[in-house]
Amino acid sequence: MQNLWECIKYIFGGNLKFKTVISQAAAISYDSLPISLVISFISAAVIAIQVSKEFLMTGAESYIGGSIAIVMIREIAPGFVALAIGARAGTAISAEIANMQVTSQVDAIKTLKVNPIGYYFAPRILASAITVPMVVLIAEFIGILSGMFVSMGTIDLHPARYMASVWAWIATKDIYISLLKACIFGALIALVCATKGYETRGGAKEVGYSTTQAAILSTIYMLVADFLINLLFYIA
After folding, report:
1. Which single residue of 5, 93, 109, 165 has CA 20 to 30 Å from 103?
2. Domain locations along the chain
3. Long-range contacts of 56-59 (CB under 8 A, 24+ apart)
4. Cβ burial, residue 190 (10 Å; 0-12/13-18/19+)
């Protein structure tokens, strides 16, 4: 929490450069877009394969689109995209900052009277919190289309019936909550991975250890946050 507070002060203190945020946004989310969309496409396709014939046997094939849309928007897209970004970009953040720490680049920043936590953490956290929801939104769209194509191919479900079910089932609330999840997941991934990298001491071996720990901890914190958000909005 202390590191997050330092970042907030750094951002609102007018020290953050817009160009740096854009650069980090490209490295974190834009470069993770292909793998995120592939995961979303395949996940929705697998779900469609699993449920389409069962729904057809019970005469509930008109519910396939809505079911896939709900699952994708509420859980699969924000969760899987965050895991993909954490595995690809989060570990890179940890390794980069850890390498700077063990090679004394962080100490050099301190001698220039620059807050290293704000300088290294703030652009990454802000970029991740802003752009991960954008990736999730695209992944949701791709996932719903994937389910439609698979349903057409497996049980010859007409796209109009599929999309009618989608529009009937999804609610604006679900989309807002999925984007909130993505924003929180993105900020958590950047914060946890940057923190583990910043705490690294030693040499190359410790850099690898910190990167591994960053991947594990960011996943755990993300899953806990997912549980709490679902508890807050869908149970309470």
Report:
1. 5
2. 2-230
3. 56/155
4. buried
